[in-house]
Each structure stands twice: as C-alpha cells, then as structure tokens.
Amino acid sequence: MNILVTGGAGYIGSHICVSLLRKGYSVIVADNLHNSEIKTIHKIEEITNHEVSFYEVDVCDSAALESVFVNNQIDGVIHCAGYKAVGESIEQPVAYYKNNVGSTLTLIEKCIKYNVNQFVFSSSATVYGNNVSPVDETMELLPTTNPYGETKAMSERILKDTAHANPNLSVTLLRYFNPVGAHESGLIGENPKGIPNNLMPYITRVAKGEFEQLQIFGDDYPTKDGTGVRDYIHVMDLAEGHVAALYNKAEGVSIYNLGTGEGTSVLELVNKFSEVNNVDVNYQVVERRDGDLASVYANASKAAKDLNWEAKRSLADMCRDVWTYEQRK
Ligand code: WQD
Q1: Cα-to-centroid distance, 254 and ligand 1 (Å)
Q2: What's the CA gap between 258 and 247, in Å, rounded?
Q3: Which end of the chain is more exposed for a tag (fewer CB within 10 A), N or C?
Q4: Distance CA 73, CA 111 (A)
C-alpha cells in the first residue's frame, strides 16, 4: 500500500512516516518545506532503513500536486500539511484560510479524480471550542477562538460533505490533543522556527539556557493547581494512531480523538520534565494568554474500541524523548 503524507517532513508528519514504514507501507511525501527541512526526510530513511519518495510541492498548487498523483499509485492519503500557530492565525487569517482550507480542497479534488478512496485528516481538539472536557466525538463543534481552529473545523465540514457526495470515499478525522515528545532515537522531533508558541518546545529552550525563563500563562484557572490543563500525547502514539486509522476502511466519515484521556497541568509537566531530565526550568507566573481554555482533555474510548488503539507512552517518556532529541539536534 502506497500512502501519500502531505506535510510529511514536518513534526507530526515525519513521525507518521516512520510508523507507516515500520508497518510495511510505502510512503510518498509532498511538502513545500515552509516549516520543515529536507534533512528530516533523510532522518526518516535512516531510522527505518526504507526509502521515501519526496516531492517538494505546495499542496495548494493544483498542477504540482497533480504530477504526484500521475506519477504514483496512491492508495491512501494522510493530510498533515498546514499552518498551525494559533497566534499567527489571528494576525494572518487570510494566509491561514488560503493555505489550510485551500490545501484540503485541492487534495480532496485529486483524490476524487484519481479514485483514491481513503483520506485521513489531521484535525485538532481545538474544533471542540469551549465544550466541557472530557470532550467526545459526539459533541457539537463550537466556535474556536482563532482562525487556525476555524480552518480545521471548515476542512472537517468540506470532507464530510465530500464523503456524502462520494459513497466510495472513506474519510477519517483525527482530532489531536497536545502532541509532544520525539522518536526515541532523537533523530527527529519538533523544531519550530523562531520563538515557540507551544509549552514543551519552550520548556526545552529554557532548560537548554536559550531562553531565560518560561512564562506560565496564569495560575488562577479552576484546575488542580490553577494552571492550564491539557491532554499531552506522545507524538509516536499519535503517529501509531494514524496507522490504526488506515485499517478503518469504513465508507463515510469516522471521527476519533487521539489523546490519552488524562489531563496534565502546566506545573505538573514542568516538574515532570525537571525530575526526569534532572534539569531546572526557571519559570514565572504571568497573566493568562488570550483565548486559552482552562482544561482540555479527551474522552479517548472510541479510538480504543473501534481502532484497537490507545496511547501507551507516559509523561516521563514524552519528557525523556524530547530531551534526547534536543541534546542531539
Ligand atoms: C498548553 C498549555 C498554555 C506556552 C495549541 C493549539 C492546538 C495544538 C496544540 C495544533 C496552556 C500553557 C503555553 C507557554 C504556558 N496545535 N503555556 N506558557 O494552546 O493547548 O494548543 O497547540 O494543532 O490546536 O491550540 O498548546 O502548548 O500553546 O499551551 O503557560 O509559553 O501551556 O496556557 O495552558 P494549546 P500550548
């Protein structure tokens, strides 16, 4: 089976490629390297001892994407390519709608034209808006606080409507919670350009001494210790969830949370990181960040039942593996 992974040179996409290759799939990657590097493709090949067919392509570029479909027998698609910085999406909404929604439209159009009937979409727990956690797949989606979240909700709607109009099409929407960590080899991991928006890459840069101090955005939330609670999931567990999803060839639309079902606070993660890696993380509590919710974590039971998949790596594994990567890169 040949799987096209868009954004396959990126943080989550590269880990998905490793899991696919390990399971015997052939992998084709289309990535414009906007927020990733070609060396990651070589690292995937080093880890798995398998070749990756790489195309430096913008998924929004219909003609360029067409050539990927013309030159390969594609059996399924995992669509990860997209911009994903919440704050940036508020400043640059047009770029986010054009890229994230545009790429989904261009890609699903090719799938229909070339009769590729399995489409797995990288969605996000953000689409739940301020639904009360644990959030589950039956919940109505609520407005998110940012254009990034809206692009994910819109892409979900596009794919639902397309599946309805094309009975042979199998669409699986995977709603990610908070992916962190890295492949245990330390060869691939998250390497955001500039100042990280997310918690874990910021923790690692403070631990490395690149940044002076972590700012904890608020400790007055109604949570166990007042800091924000999230469902952190090891990126390799997330990747394996995609392989499990490919076995789901049910026609129509299937929706799954990819989370652990556990809520972890900012302070708990900081303390676990320090304990596991025996390194200090200097922090200061400051004002809440606009748009942040107090607590977001998954009801993860549907994926366990239907996909026979659940996250198995611990918070300690996440902290250890991300540190191994940071030390090697
Ligand atoms: C986690 C917690 C912050 C940074 C976002 C997107 C989501 C997904 C993951 C793409 C919160 C706190 C953070 C910092 C802090 N991205 N924090 N200091 O906001 O849950 O989710 O990233 O799919 O779609 O919405 O992740 O890592 O930014 O924040 O205190 O410097 O850490 O307040 O409680 P978030 P995050």
Answers
A1: 26
A2: 15
A3: C
A4: 11
Which residue range forms the structural domain that includes residue 237? 2-183+231-259+297-312
Burial classification of residue 10, based on how many CB atoms lie within 10 Å of its CB (0-12 exposed, 13-18 middle, 19 or more buried): buried
Give 198 Cα–ligand 1 centroid separation in angstroms: 5
Taking only the tens place, the pLDDT of each residue in 216-242 is 999 999 999 999 999 999 999 999 999
- Alpha carbon distance 204, 207 (integer Å): 5
Which residue owns the Cα nearest ligand 1 atom 28? 198
CATH at residue 155:
3.40.50.720
Judged on CB neighbours under 10 Å (0-12, 13-18, 19+), 268 is middle
Catalytic residues: 148
Cα–ligand 1 centroid distance for 65 (angstroms): 32
pLDDT of 103-151, one tens digit each?
999 999 999 999 999 999 999 999 999 999 999 999 999 999 899 999 9
Which of 135, 156, 257, 266, when mutated, tests ligand 1's pocket best, judged by the most ligand atoms within 8 Å of its CB? 266
Q: How many domains does the chain have?
A: 1
- Distance in angstroms (rounded) separating the CA atoms of residues 256 and 46: 31
